[in-house]
Amino acid sequence: MTCTHGRSRFCSSPRPRSGWPRRARAQTTLRLDRTARVVGDEPLRLGDIATLSGDRAGELGGLILIEDPAAHPTDIDGWCRIEVDLVRNTIEARLGPAAGLVAVQGSACDIRILGRARRSAETTEAEPAEPRVHTADTLVELQTVRGAIAREISRILQTPPEALRLTFGTTDAETLDTPTTGRVIQIDPVGSSARMPIRVSLYEPNRLVLRESLRVGVLVRSRVAVVSRAVTKRAIIGPEDFRTETRWVSPTDSFASPEIALGAAAMRSLSPGEAIESRLVEPPVVIEKGDPAMVRVILDGIVLRRAAYAREPGRAGETIEFSPQHDPKTRFRATVIGKGEAQVWTFQSPPEPGTPVASGVATE
Within this chain, do residues 169 and 292 fall inside the same structural domain, yes or no? Predict the structure, then answer.
């Protein structure tokens, strides 16, 4: 005799149920490096000590684990250890319940904080040299691996070389200074973080010259809105609430530019001196539920104006429901373009330049 799902009569396992929930797959993978070297005068970010891939790799790579590595306790040779618990707690603080979708591999990373090592009585070796920091405009003309990396990172980030700061490890100098003239070079970023992991392959006819993996510290010069006085939650940010600063930030950071911050609503209270992250602001509501609005319907070169009222609140750029003022039971959707204004665009594609979009006006 066999059991109901094809096994022997001695089978005591329950019958499989197709309706049982399946465990959700992790959308992001994080693998802790065993060792890492970081500069002591910059915040230690998760991307400095881990390789990330997946949907939220860029966001997680920019998370700060140690704000001031130069002040962090180390042993006499400048080493400290980051345990996986700190990594998990940092991710949970950022993502909340969504942290369960991040697969974390590794238990700890031993970190050498450059500039922190103190010579012990037993040590006779010379201290390692500090990493060299360059703006990419001094590198892009070099016909070496270093120059090729600078050009490629500038292209990938769509950032002018003079607004790009790169930090190369001193242990990679031989690879970085390899000439590329008459050779073909392939540069593949293999992750997104403050220290970008890169795989370099250099070819000659019928020969592989080198293939190396290395990390390059990347900072981008950016205009950032910095809080100048306390802003309460849901308050509209005015010109007196922030100042504009130029900072070198990680490409994984997302800070609000002054243009975005001005007039936006704060998602939480903001403190003086805080750089405003994009996730902490949102466009203000310009049409409240029940507000009257003028909706312009662009149809076959004619603009039809319709008086309506909003059936839900909306921000500029959002598409919400309206009803004509003379017919409250009818509903239609239009895109908010400003306070008390919305439009319906009926072109299947943008018109050719010079096409008269408003050759006639009708009012309904």
Answer: no
